[in-house]
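Need a sequence for this fold. Nothing fancy.
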């Protein structure tokens, strides 16, 4: 069974992203990096990317990242911004009651994407 299956599959990941993006939109330091008019498309891409990388297909997920983050290039996606996103994922997963060990595995995999996502 995969991480995505363990937390409820694609539907659960989509629900997680709704909470996550709500947190991002409320974060004054990074909300300008998200184009709210593109939320549906962004959620779809993020859902696909997350499903890949949390299920051990990091190379395929990494291939999506440059395209998915292209709109952020001019918005200075920095280590600080990545840290904020990391924290929002942690808080979202904790809010959803995901066990600590699974959160750790998720965030460990997410950290591997830093060098791809940070400009």
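Here you go.
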């Amino acid at each position: 069974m995969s991480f995505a299956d363990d937390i409820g599959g694609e539907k659960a990941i989509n629900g997680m992203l709704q909470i996550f993006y709500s947190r991002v939109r409320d974060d004054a330091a990074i909300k300008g990096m998200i184009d709210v008019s593109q939320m549906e498309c962004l959620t779809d891409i993020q859902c696909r990317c997350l499903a890949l990388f949390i299920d051990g297909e990091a190379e395929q997920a990494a291939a999506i990242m440059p395209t998915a983050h292209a709109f952020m290039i001019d918005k200075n996606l920095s280590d600080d911004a990545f840290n904020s996103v990391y924290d929002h994922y942690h808080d979202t997963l904790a809010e959803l009651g995901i066990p600590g060990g699974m959160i750790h595995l998720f965030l460990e995999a997410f950290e591997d994407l830093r060098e791809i996502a940070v400009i």
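For context: The first helix runs from residue 3 to 6.
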